[in-house]
Amino acid sequence: MNQENQLQNRIPVIDKEVSWDKTQVIMSKTNAFGIIEYANETFVDVSGYEDYELMGQPHNIIRHPDMPKVIFKVLWENLKSGKNFHAIVKNLAKSGRYYWVITDFEIAKDENGVIVNYFGRRQSVPQEVITQHIIPLYKKLLQIEAASGVEFSEKYLIGFLEEKKRTYVEYIKELIYEHEKGQSKFSQYVAAEEEEEEERGFFRRLFNR
Ligand SMILES: Cc1cc2nc3c(=O)[nH]c(=O)nc-3n(C[C@H](O)[C@H](O)[C@H](O)COP(=O)(O)O)c2cc1C
User: Which residues form the PAS domain (predicted)?
Assistant: First the structure.
Protein backbone atom coordinates (compact mmCIF):
# COMPACT_ATOMS: atom_id res chain seq x y z
CA MET A 1 0.00 0.00 0.00
CA ASN A 2 1.44 3.35 -0.93
CA GLN A 3 1.49 6.53 1.10
CA GLU A 4 -1.49 8.02 -0.67
CA ASN A 5 -3.66 5.00 0.04
CA GLN A 6 -2.76 5.27 3.68
CA LEU A 7 -3.69 8.95 3.60
CA GLN A 8 -6.98 8.11 1.92
CA ASN A 9 -7.80 5.39 4.41
CA ARG A 10 -7.19 7.72 7.33
CA ILE A 11 -10.12 9.89 6.31
CA PRO A 12 -13.14 8.98 8.43
CA VAL A 13 -16.03 8.46 6.04
CA ILE A 14 -19.12 10.52 6.81
CA ASP A 15 -22.44 9.49 5.31
CA LYS A 16 -23.25 13.04 4.18
CA GLU A 17 -23.10 14.65 0.79
CA VAL A 18 -20.82 17.58 0.02
CA SER A 19 -22.99 20.57 -0.78
CA TRP A 20 -21.80 21.94 -4.11
CA ASP A 21 -22.98 23.89 -7.14
CA LYS A 22 -24.19 21.09 -9.40
CA THR A 23 -24.20 23.27 -12.50
CA GLN A 24 -20.39 23.30 -12.40
CA VAL A 25 -17.95 20.93 -14.11
CA ILE A 26 -15.25 19.35 -11.96
CA MET A 27 -12.11 19.04 -14.03
CA SER A 28 -8.67 17.54 -13.60
CA LYS A 29 -5.69 16.66 -15.74
CA THR A 30 -3.36 13.77 -15.02
CA ASN A 31 -0.30 12.20 -16.57
CA ALA A 32 -0.53 8.75 -18.17
CA PHE A 33 -0.42 7.10 -14.73
CA GLY A 34 -3.30 9.08 -13.22
CA ILE A 35 -1.10 11.45 -11.23
CA ILE A 36 -2.85 14.80 -10.85
CA GLU A 37 -1.17 17.68 -12.68
CA TYR A 38 -4.02 20.19 -12.64
CA ALA A 39 -7.40 20.59 -10.96
CA ASN A 40 -9.86 23.41 -11.58
CA GLU A 41 -11.35 25.61 -8.89
CA THR A 42 -14.52 23.51 -8.71
CA PHE A 43 -12.44 20.36 -8.10
CA VAL A 44 -10.63 22.13 -5.26
CA ASP A 45 -13.88 23.49 -3.78
CA VAL A 46 -15.80 20.22 -3.96
CA SER A 47 -13.00 17.89 -2.84
CA GLY A 48 -11.97 20.24 -0.04
CA TYR A 49 -8.26 19.83 -0.80
CA GLU A 50 -5.89 22.70 -1.51
CA ASP A 51 -4.13 22.72 -4.87
CA TYR A 52 -0.82 21.87 -3.24
CA GLU A 53 -2.36 18.78 -1.63
CA LEU A 54 -3.63 17.49 -4.98
CA MET A 55 -0.79 18.13 -7.43
CA GLY A 56 1.51 15.14 -7.76
CA GLN A 57 -0.95 12.83 -5.99
CA PRO A 58 -2.57 9.76 -7.57
CA HIS A 59 -6.21 10.29 -8.46
CA ASN A 60 -7.27 7.70 -5.94
CA ILE A 61 -6.80 10.43 -3.31
CA ILE A 62 -10.57 10.96 -3.77
CA ARG A 63 -11.48 7.28 -4.11
CA HIS A 64 -14.48 6.38 -1.96
CA PRO A 65 -14.50 2.97 -0.21
CA ASP A 66 -18.07 2.40 -1.46
CA MET A 67 -16.79 2.24 -5.04
CA PRO A 68 -16.41 -1.27 -6.49
CA LYS A 69 -12.96 -1.96 -7.95
CA VAL A 70 -14.43 -3.35 -11.15
CA ILE A 71 -15.69 0.08 -12.25
CA PHE A 72 -12.13 1.46 -12.15
CA LYS A 73 -10.84 -1.67 -13.85
CA VAL A 74 -13.17 -1.08 -16.81
CA LEU A 75 -12.47 2.67 -16.73
CA TRP A 76 -8.70 2.14 -16.99
CA GLU A 77 -9.05 -0.54 -19.70
CA ASN A 78 -10.89 2.02 -21.80
CA LEU A 79 -8.56 4.94 -21.04
CA LYS A 80 -5.40 2.94 -21.72
CA SER A 81 -6.76 1.86 -25.07
CA GLY A 82 -7.42 5.52 -25.88
CA LYS A 83 -11.19 5.43 -25.41
CA ASN A 84 -13.39 7.83 -23.50
CA PHE A 85 -15.43 6.31 -20.68
CA HIS A 86 -18.47 7.52 -18.80
CA ALA A 87 -18.67 6.12 -15.29
CA ILE A 88 -20.83 7.05 -12.35
CA VAL A 89 -18.46 7.49 -9.43
CA LYS A 90 -18.86 8.22 -5.73
CA ASN A 91 -15.97 10.41 -4.63
CA LEU A 92 -14.56 11.08 -1.18
CA ALA A 93 -13.91 14.68 -0.11
CA LYS A 94 -11.22 15.55 2.42
CA SER A 95 -13.98 16.13 4.97
CA GLY A 96 -15.07 12.47 4.65
CA ARG A 97 -18.26 13.50 2.85
CA TYR A 98 -19.17 12.08 -0.56
CA TYR A 99 -20.17 13.50 -3.94
CA TRP A 100 -21.51 11.54 -6.92
CA VAL A 101 -20.39 12.38 -10.45
CA ILE A 102 -20.45 11.11 -14.01
CA THR A 103 -17.15 11.19 -15.91
CA ASP A 104 -16.08 12.27 -19.38
CA PHE A 105 -12.49 12.00 -20.60
CA GLU A 106 -10.23 13.40 -23.27
CA ILE A 107 -7.00 11.67 -24.06
CA ALA A 108 -3.90 13.51 -25.27
CA LYS A 109 -1.24 11.59 -27.21
CA ASP A 110 2.21 12.60 -28.40
CA GLU A 111 3.34 12.47 -32.03
CA ASN A 112 4.05 8.74 -31.66
CA GLY A 113 0.54 8.01 -30.46
CA VAL A 114 1.66 7.45 -26.86
CA ILE A 115 -0.78 8.69 -24.21
CA VAL A 116 0.68 11.63 -22.29
CA ASN A 117 -2.30 13.11 -20.46
CA TYR A 118 -5.87 12.43 -19.47
CA PHE A 119 -8.41 15.20 -18.97
CA GLY A 120 -11.29 14.21 -16.72
CA ARG A 121 -14.51 16.19 -16.56
CA ARG A 122 -17.25 15.39 -14.08
CA GLN A 123 -20.82 16.50 -13.68
CA SER A 124 -23.45 15.82 -11.08
CA VAL A 125 -25.84 12.90 -11.54
CA PRO A 126 -29.58 13.01 -10.79
CA GLN A 127 -30.17 11.75 -7.25
CA GLU A 128 -32.95 9.43 -8.38
CA VAL A 129 -30.58 7.58 -10.74
CA ILE A 130 -28.08 7.13 -7.91
CA THR A 131 -30.58 6.01 -5.30
CA GLN A 132 -32.72 3.74 -7.45
CA HIS A 133 -30.15 2.13 -9.72
CA ILE A 134 -26.50 2.80 -8.95
CA ILE A 135 -26.38 2.31 -5.18
CA PRO A 136 -28.06 -1.14 -5.34
CA LEU A 137 -25.79 -2.26 -8.20
CA TYR A 138 -22.55 -0.97 -6.63
CA LYS A 139 -23.50 -2.44 -3.25
CA LYS A 140 -23.88 -5.84 -4.86
CA LEU A 141 -20.57 -5.51 -6.74
CA LEU A 142 -18.80 -4.49 -3.53
CA GLN A 143 -20.25 -7.45 -1.62
CA ILE A 144 -19.12 -9.83 -4.37
CA GLU A 145 -15.64 -8.28 -4.33
CA ALA A 146 -15.41 -8.71 -0.56
CA ALA A 147 -16.51 -12.35 -0.80
CA SER A 148 -14.88 -13.55 -4.03
CA GLY A 149 -12.77 -10.76 -5.53
CA VAL A 150 -12.93 -8.50 -8.55
CA GLU A 151 -12.88 -11.44 -10.97
CA PHE A 152 -16.39 -12.31 -9.86
CA SER A 153 -17.75 -8.78 -9.51
CA GLU A 154 -16.71 -8.37 -13.14
CA LYS A 155 -18.53 -11.56 -14.11
CA TYR A 156 -21.62 -10.34 -12.27
CA LEU A 157 -21.45 -6.94 -14.00
CA ILE A 158 -21.11 -8.64 -17.39
CA GLY A 159 -24.13 -10.86 -16.64
CA PHE A 160 -26.16 -7.89 -15.38
CA LEU A 161 -25.43 -5.91 -18.56
CA GLU A 162 -25.95 -8.93 -20.84
CA GLU A 163 -29.41 -9.33 -19.39
CA LYS A 164 -30.12 -5.70 -20.18
CA LYS A 165 -28.46 -6.03 -23.61
CA ARG A 166 -26.46 -2.90 -22.87
CA THR A 167 -22.86 -1.92 -22.29
CA TYR A 168 -22.16 -0.12 -19.01
CA VAL A 169 -22.07 3.24 -20.81
CA GLU A 170 -25.31 2.51 -22.68
CA TYR A 171 -26.94 1.49 -19.42
CA ILE A 172 -26.05 4.68 -17.53
CA LYS A 173 -26.88 6.80 -20.55
CA GLU A 174 -30.34 5.28 -20.58
CA LEU A 175 -30.82 5.83 -16.84
CA ILE A 176 -29.97 9.53 -17.15
CA TYR A 177 -31.91 9.91 -20.38
CA GLU A 178 -35.04 8.30 -18.91
CA HIS A 179 -34.71 10.56 -15.87
CA GLU A 180 -34.36 13.68 -18.03
CA LYS A 181 -37.36 12.64 -20.09
CA GLY A 182 -39.47 12.21 -16.99
CA GLN A 183 -38.38 15.65 -15.75
CA SER A 184 -38.98 17.55 -18.96
CA LYS A 185 -42.11 19.66 -19.32
CA PHE A 186 -41.89 19.02 -23.03
CA SER A 187 -41.13 15.35 -22.64
CA GLN A 188 -42.82 14.21 -25.85
CA TYR A 189 -41.03 16.80 -27.92
CA VAL A 190 -37.68 16.06 -26.31
CA ALA A 191 -38.23 12.33 -26.61
CA ALA A 192 -38.93 12.56 -30.34
CA GLU A 193 -35.91 14.76 -30.87
CA GLU A 194 -33.58 12.68 -28.78
CA GLU A 195 -34.69 9.28 -29.95
CA GLU A 196 -32.22 9.75 -32.78
CA GLU A 197 -29.47 11.06 -30.56
CA GLU A 198 -26.46 8.81 -30.59
CA GLU A 199 -24.43 8.00 -27.50
CA ARG A 200 -21.62 10.36 -28.43
CA GLY A 201 -24.11 13.19 -29.05
CA PHE A 202 -25.86 12.50 -25.76
CA PHE A 203 -22.71 12.84 -23.69
CA ARG A 204 -21.49 15.81 -25.73
CA ARG A 205 -24.71 17.61 -24.86
CA LEU A 206 -24.50 16.50 -21.23
CA PHE A 207 -20.97 17.85 -20.93
CA ASN A 208 -21.65 20.90 -23.08
CA ARG A 209 -18.91 20.22 -25.58
C1 LIG B 1 -8.22 11.83 -15.55
C2 LIG B 1 -8.63 10.85 -14.49
C3 LIG B 1 -9.66 11.17 -13.62
C4 LIG B 1 -10.05 10.30 -12.62
N5 LIG B 1 -11.05 10.69 -11.78
C6 LIG B 1 -11.36 9.90 -10.73
C7 LIG B 1 -12.34 10.30 -9.79
O8 LIG B 1 -12.99 11.35 -9.91
N9 LIG B 1 -12.56 9.48 -8.73
C10 LIG B 1 -11.90 8.31 -8.56
O11 LIG B 1 -12.14 7.63 -7.54
N12 LIG B 1 -11.01 7.88 -9.46
C13 LIG B 1 -10.73 8.65 -10.53
N14 LIG B 1 -9.79 8.21 -11.44
C15 LIG B 1 -9.27 6.82 -11.30
C16 LIG B 1 -8.13 6.72 -10.32
O17 LIG B 1 -6.92 6.89 -11.01
C18 LIG B 1 -8.10 5.35 -9.62
O19 LIG B 1 -8.00 4.31 -10.56
C20 LIG B 1 -9.34 5.10 -8.73
O21 LIG B 1 -9.50 6.12 -7.79
C22 LIG B 1 -9.28 3.75 -8.00
O23 LIG B 1 -8.15 3.65 -7.22
P24 LIG B 1 -7.14 2.44 -7.41
O25 LIG B 1 -6.84 2.39 -8.88
O26 LIG B 1 -5.98 2.77 -6.56
O27 LIG B 1 -7.91 1.23 -6.94
C28 LIG B 1 -9.40 9.04 -12.48
C29 LIG B 1 -8.37 8.71 -13.36
C30 LIG B 1 -7.99 9.58 -14.38
C31 LIG B 1 -6.91 9.19 -15.31
Answer: 31-82
Give the Å distance between the CA of 89 and the centre of ligand 1.
9
Residue among 50, 42, 47 nearest 25 (CA) = 42
Kindly give the number of the ligand 1 atom that is closest to the alpha carbon of 60. 21
The domain in which residue 189 lies consists of 127-206
Contact 20, 46 (CB under 8 A): yes
Residue 30 CB–ligand 1 contact under 6 Å: yes
Q: What pLDDT digit, counting tens, does each position of 41-66 carry?
A: 999 999 999 999 999 999 999 999 99
User: What DSSP element (H or E) covers 27?
Assistant: strand 26-31
124 lines ligand 1 (CB under 6 A): no
Strand-pair category, 88-92 with 98-109: antiparallel
Give per-residue pLDDT as tens, 94-151: 999 999 999 999 999 999 999 999 999 999 999 999 999 999 999 999 999 999 999 9
Distance 116 CA to ligand 1 centre (A): 16
Same domain, residue pair 39 and 140: no
